[in-house]
Amino acid sequence: MIEENSCRPLPRAMSRSVKEQCGASLSALAMLTLGAATLALPWGVLILVPLLLLAAAWLGEEGQIDAFPRREDLLLVAAMVLQGLTWVGMLLVHGEGTAGLTEAWPFALVAVALLAFARARVPATWLWAGLALGSLAASAWALWQRVIEGTARANGHEPLHAILFGNLGLLMGLLCFAGLSWSFARRDRWAWSLLLIAGGLAGLLTSALSGSRGGWIGLPLAIWVLYRGHGRRLSLGWRVTLVAALMALLGSLYAMPQTGVATRVDNAVNSVRQYVAGDDEMTSVSARLEMWRGSSQLILERPLLGWGSSGYQAAMRERGAEGEQDPALGRFWHAHNDILDAWVKRGLPGLLALLALYFAPLWLFARGVGAGSGEQRALAVAGTLVPVAFIDFGLTYSFLAYPDHDPVGSLSPGALTLRLSDARHATGHGEM
């Protein structure tokens, strides 16, 4: 549970002060590790997050076990488990062996982490601090890569690349902005608000330095979610000021040639024009459009069970050999769209599992975006932004095609969602 009172009574064998220190230290370390290791540190470090949360949950108050887990907790865990089981099951259906076990284990691990989240008490202070500091560290890493190392696009640590790194950086920045309702409700509001604003701006910078255009498509919807949570409680003067500042920032990122934003946007617009005009030149945009067309036609042929991972690649190569599309597209192993990729490879079960992964957290958190206290709204806004962002990222790239590179399921809408009972309290509703 995300809360201000971060400590619970621990086993009787310890003194009260030791129990409090242990509980606070474990949960704080878990949140700082999550924030820092998502982008700034090698991903192997992320394995510590569920372990730390499990330790904090194990030291929890015995009486709490009667109310654990709640229906809200089980709903999100069920969506995560369903995704993993569908991934493995459809690989077996298509005769692709037990490789799915190695690809789906992060979904199981993040389900365990979510259950530990529901059992432990996590201080909100360290949650927001971890996100802000992690976003600032990621932007510093992106600047280092672009300025010092001279890379064309900031791409983070392997196995990340520019698209994954930039979009996750953007998400961390948006989550920092989500925390402003929490910071404004504190006595030391200015220090925390400035830190979160700096983290939010750093996320935008990380995205710009990565040159990842796909994440920008969903910015209007993300801004609308932030407005629903924060903006309607601001005066008209503050609203105008913030909108003007945002427009100036985005304009600066576009105008500065060092960011590469203008070049990437102009290339995308020109590529769309060429594709519509029938130009055969293959660009990143036209390649995506052709892959979407090819994947859609394959789905029509096998809508229920799909083609499987290897079957999809073989079918795309065959389409290229028959002249139905550019043969070069056969080298891509995913459809560059999460919905199409899930459906064409894992059939209707894969599509339904993905939609559950999107909409379970969205349904739980969106109800609390405009209600409750500042602390509750911050959690609800953050929990809503996660699936909104992943839906956006999945429009132009198969973001969830990389579970085997993800130690704690960070590339999933459930990974950064917060304590589910907080969303329930934020909505003002009781049990589901």
TrEMBL record:
Any Pfam family matching the protein: Wzy_C
The protein, known as: O-antigen ligase family protein
Domain of life: Bacteria
O-antigen ligase-related domain boundaries: 201-355
Stretches that traverse the bilayer: 43-61, 73-93, 99-118, 125-144, 164-183, 190-208, 214-229, 236-256, 347-366, 378-400
UniProt keyword terms in alphabetical order: Ligase, Membrane, Transmembrane, Transmembrane helix
Protein localization: Membrane
Predominant localisation class: membrane
Organism annotation: Billgrantia bachuensis
Lipid bilayer topology: Multi-pass membrane protein
Gene Ontology terms, MF aspect: ligase activity
Keyword Transmembrane set for record: yes
